Amino acid sequence: MNTNLALLLLLAPFIGFLFNIFFGKSIGKTASGVIGTLMIVVSFIVTLYFFGAITAKPEGIHISLFDWIQISNFKVDFGFQFDQLSVLWLLFVTGIGSLIHMYSISYMHDDENMHKYFAYLNLFIFFMITLVIGSNLLVLFIGWEGVGLCSYLLIGFWHKNQEFNDAAKKAFIMNRIGDLGLLIGIFIIGSLFSTLDYATLKTAIAGATDLNMYWISAAAFALFIGACGKSAQIPLYTWLPDAMAGPTPVSALIHAATMVTAGIFMITRLNYLFDLAPDVQNIIAIVGAVTSLVAATIALVQTDIKKVLAYSTVSQLGLMFLALGLGAYEVAVFHVITHAFFKACLFLGSGSVIHALHGEQDMRKMGGLKKVMTITFVTFLISSLAISGIPPFSGFFSKDEILMVAFEHNKILWFIASLASLMTAFYMFRLLYLTFFKEFRGTAEQKSHLHESPTLITFPLIVLAILATLGGLISLPTNSWLNEYLAPLFTKVATEEHHFGTSEYMLMLVAVIGGLVGIGIAYSKYIKQNLVPEEDEKITGFAKVLYNKYYVDEIYDSLFVKSINGLSKFFRDNVETTLSSLVFGLGKVTNEIGFQGKKLQSGSIGFYLFAFVLGICAIITYLFLAQ
Amino acid sequence: MNVSLILILLLVGAFATYISGDKVASKVALFFGLSALGCSLVLLNHFNSGENISFLCQWINQPNVSFALKADGLSIAMLLLTTALTPIIIYTSFGTEYKNAKAFYSLILFMSFAMVGTFLAADGLLYYIFWELALIPIYFIALIWGNGDAEERKKAVVKFFIYTLAGSLFMLIAFIYLYQQAGSFLIEDLYKLNLSATEQLWIFLAFFLAYAIKIPIIPFHTWQANVYQKAPAVGTMLLSGIMLKMGLYSIIRWQLPITPLAAKEYMYIFVSLGVAGVIYGSIVALRQKDLKKLLAYSSLAHVGLIAAGTYTLTIDGLRGAVLQMIAHGFVVVGLFFISEIIFRRYETRTISEMGGIRTQSPKFASMFLLLVLASVALPTTFNFVGEFTVLYSLSQINVWFAFLGGTTIILGAYYMLKMYQQVMLGETNTKVFADVTFKEGFALVLIIGVLFFFGMYPKPITDLITPSLEEILKVINRV
């Protein structure tokens, strides 16, 4: 029963993929979109079943299908594990996935390759489910690389544009740098514990007496590199903003709500391993905090609506890593969930705007949209309030918990995270004001076409806005359902229920005031003073550095891409030719010896006689000397 | 029933193809290729049911040479690789017209015969004869039916011939020395020899020269890219798909068990050499202008990793190497076929003259992409199983080896995706590109099917090869 349902859960999207690849074109656009969506709905329903099953059976459900890979002293099977963590992830992957599929039916309707779009989107959900429900690290790795592939396919969906293709390629390669880290981590774990299975690993670690801490730290660090790639953390974050080349629903699903949270999933999954490596945890916390700040500063000055949201995602992911590094896994998971709601809503909202403006993404050419796009505006406003940490929206609760944990551990980290949060409030409301307030700044032709998006687009927005509003309820500061639900996963006792005293309320107040200050600055600049960001060439000073993303892309380009290409050219033009001429040289030497040797056989009897006599003399002398 | 049947079948096939005439030669060759495959599958079945399908008879009395064919899991796996790829390779040629087809197809079967012989031979001299015999057909195939300027082609092909022949001579000397010690060429007798460390080193090096040139391992690879480029598609497939596996197979079968002391003593050097090949090949592949040359360097990188795996002397290294040999055989044949399909339409192999093909031929684009993904070892492809196992074995020696060898997953993705982008993507090409024909599609689907099936379920192959690899490892660890 469970096995069949698990297969249904997993294979429904895959069947959708196959169907759309082979028959999608012939059955028409709407039908292909509807089938794609229904397959994810099926998975969502099965997930609900598993949610119930896990509630009744907190120790989880394990399913093993067949032996996959054989390593010297252990086998890796193709198996699934349903527990609190995987079910939670499944819920929002398939839930938000269904909504975004639905949204795409309308959004992508003008694209000639809509069936392919749905095929890839279905394939993505298939791999994401694999990633989440795998019972060992190698099945996770299938999903891990598989979602990377789908991300590649969807970023480069409009493959006539080579810039989009470059972005897709960059995403794939940067992810693979992380993947190598993940693989190395897997190798180390495999050789330390002779298993890659989560459950066995957990028991092995719990039961072990003399653990090799050096190698455990190495494994944790390598795995963290993998997480950096997938979840766009410093130094492997630059692919995510470029990934905005893909269709906007893809950005919402893959590059905000689901795939980029895979790193957090993996670290939470292996929390018992990371708990043993405090040094690595510190690194994670610092990298997370720094990433959240750096990305937030870049987002301050971007003018492309999707770029702002992309850097915002990097920044929010940084906050989640901060929580992970501080050992507050359940807090990170909480923020993953609320972030999935409001960020998906924000991306879909920006998609609705872009759709209405026929592809315009520059906020300088927007404005005044709240009059015509009421639903989009209201949902966008709610999500902006949520991400800015204004109560009672969901983001307030999750972000507040992160800040509180940070404050307990390290004031500097708390300060960095608070600063990032303040900036978040600023750039989100900057975005909101520029897009929806004041007068429309686009062309007259665009203006005449302005319209609210159809129901297929607004319905997911409304649902997500409701979730973004209420999502905080799952983990209230004094009564957290989420923490209790996740408790069986953690070996350490989950962060003890906060004793809620004055200092906690003060912290909360500070955070809210910070958010309001950010909003206030945005208000005074963009509403009161009616400013509009300047043209690209007029940006100067530090703003220019920020606008150009600290020139990190350029630095990476000259440091890595150029040097490896230069090396390649050198190898091709110099080393290869030299090696080749060496081999030919050997041939030439042989040839030359033969040529010179040929002269000995001149045919002159006199020379032969001379050589003959000389030879005999030599032999006789030798014999004499030998005696 | 024993394995000599396959040899007879292929040899008869070669003759039958030659006398059948140009018109039907390709079909006759395909028929015999398929028969050989069917026959190997039947033999596999016999082998699995525990029957002895080896073959042994006295061949020459003075010196003492036997016609010994040994069928264990390892050689059967290589036999299956050869007999599965041969008909596919013949089938891929159906869209191209070859002059003097009867000789062409006859040579393919003859080459298949020699390679099967190499994989099965259990007598040093017999093995050496098959090893050299395989060189003759590929020499003519590349020389006569190859492409590009005839003079340049001749230069490249003759270099290849002399170079590999010269390398193999050292192996012959090693065998003669071994014969003097053992009084027999039989592999079991050679396994039993107790050679001193110095003797082992020299023999190890003599073998190494032959194998390093054939595989090729850097810096002995200079013949490769040019010959791959100049040879006809079929020749390149035979070379890269099967023939270079002769060298890798021989490391496992002959070199390591006969000279285990040397192999252990110098393990780090040879693993390093393989890993260096991975990085070097990948980097050179980045800036290739010719599609076939790019694939040649990618092949250099992949076989470097396989060689590194064999030299780890661990069960994972050996098993991963054999799995990866098979996976690489299929994927590289597929990719060279892709290059041939493009050549049939655009008459070029220069990457910069391509681009914008995907919009015109969705089926071709999908199949090409799947092969690219297999080549970069995406999980669920067979290549991942092999590459993962090999990298795991490297990590057991030293985790930095796994890191350096693992750069293939980054660099491989880089050069393959870059190539795919340049060849397939971008604005629609002004030149028409017809989507794959049924025949082309069928061959590609077969290859892709094999790669994904065994990627998810490698167990049959793992179970087939593991016992014999453990046997060999026992021989290696006898000292």
Automatic annotation (TrEMBL), chain A:
Residues 68-118 form the NADH-Ubiquinone oxidoreductase (complex I) chain 5 N-terminal domain. This is NADH dehydrogenase subunit L. GO terms for biological process: ATP synthesis coupled electron transport; electron transport coupled proton transport. The chain crosses the membrane at residues 6-23, 35-56, 87-105, 117-135, 180-201, 213-240, 252-274, 280-301, 308-329, 372-392, 412-436, 456-476, 505-523, 605-625. The keyword Cell membrane does not apply. It is a multi-pass membrane protein. Gene3D superfamilies: 1.20.5.2700. Signal peptide: none annotated. It comes from Flavobacterium degerlachei.
UniProtKB/TrEMBL annotation, chain B:
It is a multi-pass membrane protein. Pfam families: Proton_antipo_M. The chain crosses the membrane at residues 73-91, 103-122, 128-148, 160-180, 200-221, 233-254, 266-287, 294-315, 321-343, 364-385, 397-417, 438-457. One of its GO terms (biological process) is electron transport coupled proton transport. Keywords: Membrane, Transmembrane, Transmembrane helix. It is found in: Endomembrane system; Membrane. InterPro entries: NADH_Q_OxRdtase_chainM/4, NADH_UbQ_OxRdtase, ND/Mrp_TM. GO terms for molecular function: NADH dehydrogenase (ubiquinone) activity; NADH dehydrogenase activity; ubiquinone binding. Belongs to the complex I subunit 4 family. This is NADH dehydrogenase subunit M. It comes from Flavobacterium degerlachei.
